[in-house]
């Protein structure tokens, strides 16, 4: 019986101490939360921005077409790209694109200079593109990377990227 009384007494003491501790700390979280909200958070306060430089444009006056793709749309004929952009050609032979509303994730970029402005990447009769083209990623030494993995990059922080067109 003594063990039972001692056990209940210990529980009552623990609960009363916990209640007193909770009363003392009731204002502490509000102060801590205010302090956290007031402190700048370098990661969440930094906007996610992708700055893209596309270099080595062709000779034609047509626009530069940029397609930001997900794995589900990469080289799928009837799939819509995640985001597309049409940029006017500049005399400098390069164009810049600033994307400030791209959510974090894995993406790949396809670019071509539509020299004749017909909205498509023209090809030679034996297959390779006639117009300058390029891809994101470090593994794009292949002519046309069919696999998303060859051109993908992970976007979760501000990023600058250069795509040099070839062809």
Textual characterization of the structure:
- With 167 residues, this protein is an alpha+beta fold.
- The protein has two domains: 2-39; 50-164, Immunoglobulin-like.
- Helices cover 26% and strands 27% of the residues.
- The protein contains four helices and eight strands.
- It has helices at 2-25, 28-38, 42-45, 148-151, and strands at 50-55, 64-69, 83-87, 94-99, 105-113, 133-135, 152-155, 159-164.
- Strands 2, 3, 5, 6 and 7 form a five-stranded antiparallel beta sheet that branches. Strands 4-1-8 form a three-stranded mixed beta sheet, with no helix packed on it.
- The longest helix has 24 residues, at 2-25.
Give a quick summary of the entry:
This protein is an alpha+beta fold. 26% of the residues lie in helices and 27% in strands. The protein folds into 2 domains: 2-39; 50-164, Immunoglobulin-like.
Q: What is the radius of gyration computed over CA atoms, rounded to a whole number of angstroms?
A: 29 Å
Q: Using DSSP, what is the number of strands?
A: 8
The count of helical stretches stands at 4
Name the poorly predicted regions.
4-43
Strand content: 25-35%
Biggest β-sheet description: 5 strands, antiparallel
**Which whole number gives the mean pLDDT?**
77
- Category by helix and strand content: alpha+beta
Q: Give helix and strand order, one letter per element, not per position.
A: HHHEEEEEEHEE
Helix content: 25-40%
Q: What is the total domain count?
A: 2
Q: What name does CATH use for the topology of the largest domain?
A: Immunoglobulin-like
Name the CATH architecture of the largest domain.
Sandwich
Shape: globular
State the CATH class of the largest domain.
Mainly Beta
Query: First CA to last CA: what distance?
Result: 91 Å
